[in-house]
Amino acid sequence: MGRTIFFFIKLAIFVGIAIWLVENPGSVTVNWLGWELQTNFGLFALLVVVAIFLTARGWRMLDAILSAPGSWFRSRADKRKHRGYRALTLGLAAVAAGDAEEARRQARRADQQLQDPELTRLLSAQAAALAGDHAAAARYFAALRENPETAFIGLSGLLRQAVSRGDDEHALELAEEAFKLRPDAAYVATTRVFLLARARRWVDAQRAVYEAVRAKILPEDVALGHRSAILVERARDAIEQGDSDAAISHAGNAVDSAPDFVPALIEKVHAEMAAGKPKRANRLVEDNWARVAHPDLAEAFIALVPDETPHATYRRVTELARKAPDHVESKLMVAAAGLASEHYAEARLQLEAVSESELSPRACRLWAALEEHDQGDVKATRIWLERAATMDRDPSWTCGTCGAISDRWSAICGNCDGFNTLSWSTPAHVTVMIPLPHDGSGQHGSDGPVIDMDGAPVGPSASERTAA
After folding, report:
1. Which candidate, 223, 226, 222, 167, places its Cα nearest to that of 199?
2. What kind and span of H or E run contains 292?
3. How far apart are CA 336 and CA 42, in angstroms?
4. pLDDT tens-digit readout, 423-435
5. What pLDDT digit, counting tens, does each position of 269-292 carry?
6. Start-end ranges of CATH 1.20.58 in the chain?
7. Which of 107, 130, 293, 316 sits most deeply, having the most CB atoms within 10 A of its CB?
8. Residue 406: is it exposed, middle or buried by C-beta count within 10 angstroms (0-12/13-18/19+)?
């Protein structure tokens, strides 16, 4: 409705101007190169408008003709760019999906269409790495590293490759270089911490942990655990170097960071002993036993007095157990000391106090030793040993990454080189079925002997069951 009204308004204005020109025709005379043109003003104005219109149309046609080749080439380039960016997007999606062949195909298409190595080099590197062509991926990442705008991407790719092939020395160099470019990058910061720790550069590793916390990459609780682990290792190194004051300082700071971290407490006990302060070491165990009763702490406590008689050891551990008489570790510690000192009645009393839910292979082995030495009961001894063999393993220092078991805590796993991955836990009890060899009858043996991870059969084989 509004457009109709506007049209009639324009029409009325046009008609009004036309009527005014008819009523006031006027005259126009043009002299040019001997030619003379006389006409009224209205016709002259119309001719001028028509001439301007035709000139504009002609110019547009001429411009279109002259610019046609350039427009065609620009349109072709735009289409190529559109296809290239689409291939780039599809290639990155293929990398995310793990489709190596499709990623490489799209990388080639993107490179052909865009003809811009800076844009397609990352996709080509990721596709090559996904396909297992690490040499090609390394070349692409190295080229990215040379460009200041893509240097960090190239360094990150090379860093991941170095870590995956176990080249810690080169990986650490790359991590340091990448950290200077992007100190807020989570992967680089955390990898740098782990690599410094694996290189046993504890001071630098501790500083790297602090920098990661300051950049809000590591949570506070995780960082405190890493700091405590590093300080324990620094205390151990200080003891080996004969610097007991530094050892006490590092171990004390480790305990402050993680008060319930048993290795930190044990290392502080060792540091006090190295400084010639056995009373302080003894008090440290007594003050913490009720809170963190642990077999390693009991072992460190017993070792405070070297060349001690079993009877004297029994008296000392009995006093320590009174700090937490109901704790299973107190019961087992006194039972073991009672066995060693031939206080069999007290050992039996302590083992009988161990509930069924607290029973462990270690407790079963103590029972077996007690029955053998106190009663000479071979049958009871065998029963307890068999029970120990079928139970879940005793808790031990177990790597949360690879599952390896260690007798002694360390900041670095001795199997997978993981940093701060050992924790006190019950290892998984794994059994494997060993298949029987092909018997020539067209069938394979289906159930060989079940073997636990220690290599001992825990059940009869199929042939043994048949024979029985």
Report:
1. 167
2. helix 278-292
3. 126
4. 999 887 654 444 5
5. 999 999 999 999 999 999 999 999
6. 219-285
7. 107
8. middle
